Amino acid sequence: MPSAKRTAPGRPPPRPGATARPRRLRRSPALREWVAETTVETRRLVYPLFVRPGGGPPEAVPSMPGIEQVAAADAGRSAGELAAEGIRAVLLFGVPRAKDPEGSDAWAEDGAVPEAIRSIRRTAPNLVVATDVCLCAYTDHGHCGVVRGNEVENDATCERLGRVALAHARAGADVVAPSAMMDGQVAAIRSALDDGGFEGTAILSYATKHASSLYGPFRDVERSSPTFGDRRSYQMDYRNAREALREMELDVAEGADILMVKPALTSLDLLARARDRFPIPLAAYQVSGEYAMLKAAARAGVLDERAAVEESLGAIRRAGADLIVTYFARDVARWSREGR
Known about the structure:
By secondary structure, the protein is of the alpha/beta class. The chain contains 11 helices and 12 strands. An 8-stranded parallel beta barrel has the order 1-4-5-8-9-10-11-12, surrounded by 8 helices. Strands 6-7 form a two-stranded antiparallel ribbon.
């Protein structure tokens, strides 16, 4: 009688048919790259650029190593460098000449952002120029809109956001990005742009912008912290997912061309759910606090900066983001040129 076939000690007996071994396609860097489902191409990254009025050399941002505030007159030079590095788009944030209760410098035709747009258009005409549309950096109280008493007035703020968007469009912005989280802000801006003859200017809506602890370094740069209260009455509660999706639905109905979630790290579930629901492009903002945390951990030697950045951006793409606003855009572009 023939003896039973023996198996090697410690190994399970063979099963009929092919054995599933996903590790086969992880055996080498070439195989892993070959079958990778998600890639973070430089073309998908948007670099935030802080611009201040006038001229002068760039000023370092102490809380964000490697980030600078540039003079609006020199924004074209900075944009030319970015374009040469492979960056395809910038998101401009302005610093005012003076603050007042209305934030009126935000819609001044000769303000920092319009001046920067014109400078960029002369030097890097093929760069996509998006602009943040909000009042927080321009108001002396630091809130994102018009304040009456101790309340931010929604509709009065929307009207002024329309003025800001129109000033940016006149200067040559491709995309305006309202971030004030006012109800109806997309509709008000779409109406202002269309009435002004800028039907082709797109709207990237900060549709889900949470009241987050991760904005601290940004507020240092813009000097935009509220002088009283906080922004929880208009920025979203991070605990509410259904409400976030409703905000997105409303913005799509009002004419948003792109939806954005912010911060990216705490919104990955929302990105995934939005990807299944909305056919338009989705963006995510890897905010200043996320940048500062990764930088601090890398400087402390507790993680590899490049590996951590690539992993975090890969997770944002995997969750469904078509575009990522990140302060690491220049680093990613450099790493792409250098190879692995």
